[in-house]
TrEMBL record:
Domain Glycosyltransferase 2-like: 8-154
Membrane-spanning parts: 239-260, 272-296
Keyword check for Coiled coil: no
Provenance organism: Limosilactobacillus pontis
Database matches in InterPro entries: Glyco_trans_2-like, Glycosyltransferase_2, Nucleotide-diphossugar_trans
Localization terms from the record: Membrane
UniProt topology in membrane: Multi-pass membrane protein
Keyword check for Nucleotide-binding: no
Pfam families in the cross-refs: Glycos_transf_2 (PF00535)
Name assigned to this protein: Glycosyltransferase family 2 protein
Record key words, sorted: Glycosyltransferase, Membrane, Transferase, Transmembrane, Transmembrane helix
Length: 323
């Protein structure tokens, strides 16, 4: 296992044919400079992960990996999502790399932060977060919802590095630690801080997408945010429990009230018992369901043990072994 400063840059791609030529050029330049400066091994690689693209993305990746010795590709059997693509890239690269950088294909994240991240790694940091120092290119809506999301996660006790997404560097041991997390519902930006080790940040300006459309429309974004909440916090279930408790308290008040009314002789017969049982049973049921739900929710996602991705083809390992 060679690990003398080999850098692998993992790039998830889903229908990115429009940006890929520019991505290869820009990130390729950065990598070549790093290699010729001797900062990283000359066996460093770019690893494109094709996440079930429907366009020409994969044939472009194949073409580039024939053309350039430092370009490699991995192909999923279907679309497994951005987070799984990152994970597959990392697990493929971890046996050969001293450091792994993950970056989106669309060049929104400033590629010039890559050498800075490498410098931090050479200074001994295990985790280097890329943090946006401005969100000018995001819409007001995206900025506001992102802020609300980070605030909510903070309140739920989940530690996130604000304004950092999936642009980061991990050392070999930090990657190995991350890969030990076996959860199915991946929310990498919540998991990385749990790994520990010495971490630092590199600031960059987030740009517009170079070409093509965002693969994260609103519904996917909401899904991703909900995933983040439910796989990191059981607060929603606690909320149901409190709801149940409040219902029980109200039912007790109702009980006393109907009892007094009954003693005063103000009620139609039968009303008291119906009122009490509806409220009391309703409350108890809500509490019970929430308690069971707490366990079911935890077991459900874990116990299925479905594979997180299926790799159809990969030429990274072959290229790494060849050297
Ligand atoms: N992506 C992916 N699989 C998906 C969706 C997106 O691999 O199912 C990749 C996409 O190609 C890009 C990155 O994830 O490299 C981030 O996606 P995008 O730029 O569309 O998200 P945004 O920046 O708009 O949040
Ligand atoms: Mg993007």
């Amino acid at each position: 296992m060679k690990q003398n400063n080999i850098l692998t840059i993992v790039i998830p791609c889903f229908n990115e044919e429009e940006v890929l030529p520019e991505t290869v050029k820009e990130i390729g330049n950065i990598l070549q400079n790093l290699m010729s400066d001797g900062k990283v091994s000359d066996n460093s690689k770019i690893l494109f992960v094709n996440d079930g693209s429907k366009d020409k993305t994969w044939s472009l990746i194949e073409k580039y990996s024939h053309q350039y010795s430092y370009v490699t590709g991995l192909k999923f059997s279907r679309n497994y999502g951005h987070q799984n693509a990152l994970l597959a890239g990392m697990s493929t690269a971890v046996d050969y790399s001293d450091m792994i950088i993950t970056i989106d294909a669309d060049l929104q994240d400033d590629v010039h932060a890559i050498p800075q991240m490498v410098d931090k790694r050479l200074d001994g940091y295990d985790v280097v977060y890329g943090v946006r120092n401005s969100r000018k290119t995001d819409t007001v809506f995206k900025r506001k919802t992102a802020l609300a999301f980070y605030n909510l996660m903070g309140k739920l006790g989940v530690k996130l590095v604000p304004d950092s997404a999936d642009y980061r560097l991990l050392s070999n041991r930090a990657t190995r630690a991350l890969l030990k997390f076996k959860e199915r519902n991946l929310f990498l930006r919540g998991m990385v801080p749990l790994v520990g080790y010495k971490s630092t940040k590199v600031y960059y300006a987030r740009k517009e997408r170079y070409a093509g459309k965002s693969k994260y429309p609103l519904n996917k974004m909401i899904h991703f945010a909900l995933d983040g909440i439910t796989s990191f916090s059981i607060a929603p279930i606690h909320l149901i429990m409190y709801l149940g408790l409040i219902t029980v308290i109200i039912s007790i008040i109702c009980m006393i009230y109907t009892f007094v009314e009954k003693v005063m002789g103000h009620v139609v017969s039968g009303w008291a018992s119906i009122m009490i049982s509806i409220w009391l049973l309703g409350g108890i049921q809500l509490i019970s369901i929430s308690v069971i739900g707490e366990y079911v929710g935890k077991i459900f996602s874990e116990v299925k043990h479905r594979p997180r991705f299926t790799i159809e083809f990969e030429n990274y390992t072959k290229k790494m072994r060849a050297k």
